[in-house]
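Quick board copy: two proteins, each given as sequence then tokens.
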Amino acid sequence: DATESDLFSLFNGVGKVANAEIVSHKDTERSKGFGFVWMTTIDEAKRAVTELHDRDFMGRKLVVSGARSNGPTG
């Protein structure tokens, strides 16, 4: 039941959020149960992982991890 605004508010409590997006099924538009939050700095992203991972949020435990990169694609 969480909205992108809910995620934005939660993560904004630990740093500045650039964007928050909940992933939805394209046919039903129902949430797939996960999303992405972009923080403005790496330090804020690390703080979000430390402070929010395993925290209860709207009746569910959050799994918060840093993005994994495959390196430059150029």
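And the next:
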Amino acid sequence: MCLSQLVRIEKVDATNARAVGKAGGRSVEVSLAVLALEGDLPVAGDWVQVSTGLAIRLLSADEAAQILTARMEPGGTP
């Protein structure tokens, strides 16, 4: 079972600690703590994989599109 969601970043706060983005048409706030430790911070327009409120992986636009498509197929997880 997949509990993560894909979020497209809309705004990163001035401290690079938190971001606001869209996931499935709704606004979500995420922590960037894990990505900050890796030195891989997103900017507006980037896609991230989020689990329990933490952005855990920065995704390319192609990766995000493939995952979103797969989740919309029969048997996929929306």
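Board note added afterward: Helices lie at 33-38, 61-72.
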